[in-house]
Amino acid sequence: GKSRRPQHFRRARAGAGRAVERLPHHHRGRRLEAERAAARVTLRTALETSDLDIRRLAAAIHHTESRWCERLFEAIRALQGEPSERIGSFYKEAMAISDCGVRLSFHNRGQGWIIERLRKTLPKIRDQNLYDELSAMLISHEQNIAMVTVSGLSL
After folding, report:
1. Half-sphere exposure of 22 (CA within 13 A, CB side)
2. d(CA 131, CA 124)
3. Span 58-114, pLDDT tens digits
4. Backbone angles phi, psi at 128, to 5 degrees
5. Cα dihedral across residues 81, 43, 113, 124: positive or negative
6. 3-state secondary structure of 22
7. Torsions phi, psi for 5 (to 5 deg)
8. Is residue 131 within 8 Å of residue 137, measured between CB atoms?
């Protein structure tokens, strides 16, 4: 059947394999595990809060986090790798915070960790398609941080 992925992603995937292959395996897995943890935190936060503003914000961030999980998963598969099924330790740390607003603010710090890693990785990427995908991921995470900051939830 025909792929339901956007055309630009199919092109990126085709070239991403070679470039991601140059990243050590533990880096690929850690990024996916961190994204998966962040996606679960935002989903659980959206489901658990009674505050509609926090729910909307967490749901919007969850949408982008899920998209990046899928893209990382597919990039690893394109390399014939086996994506980790683990969830990063960030999940337990964040879920230990019962106040959903504080938890979302803590999530922002996790977004900062991903941004930091992406900024270190991007200069090493030679494949333009992968560079573009990871740059978009970086921008998306910066936008997530900005949304939480503007909401007043930022620590």
Report:
1. 13
2. 9
3. 999 999 999 999 988 888 887 778 888 889 899 999 999 999 999 999 999 889 988
4. -65, -40
5. positive
6. coil
7. -75, 145
8. no
The token pair at 60 is 């919007």
Residue 21 corresponds to which tokens in the numbers above?
């292959």
Q: Which amino acid is at 97?
A: I
Sequence-separated (6 or more) residues with CB below 8 Å from residue 153 = 54, 57, 101, 102, 104, 105, 108
Amino acid at 138: L
Joined together, the tokens standing for residue 105 give 């603010």
Which residues contact residue 147 at a Cβ distance below 8 angstroms, ignoring those fewer than 6 apart?
57, 60, 61
> Which of 71, 72, 66, 77 lies closest to 32, judged by CA?
72
Residue 44 CB contacts under 8 Å (≥ 6 apart), including other chains:
95
Amino acid residing at 139: I
